[in-house]
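Sample pair:
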Amino acid sequence: MVTNTQGYDDLIMYLTQHLSLFEKPGQVAPGAPTVISFIEDYIAEQIMNFCQQHKGLNTEQRSLIVREIDGIVYDLQEVLSGVINQPITIEQKEFIDEFICLVKNLFDSAVADANV
């Protein structure tokens, strides 16, 4: 649906261009979750919003989306493996927030293109 598109490839390139955010120390908010916890929680929230916005999705389409999201989280874990269990910094949180919103936009576009 989206992970085999040029848009997703561009997003991965965008992530790699901003890896410096994950290589330097930054300000961690008190009680900040780990990088992976934030990724998992925020992407789940965005996909729930996505499914609420696209009520016409059938079970097969929803399953495909969940499989692709699992792949995207896996990709993020691979790229960010060195910091995945560290507390998330403010800058990292802002970047991941933006990145996940861009992922959601890819799904929105794919559904719009499919007229679902």
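The chain has one domain: 6-114.
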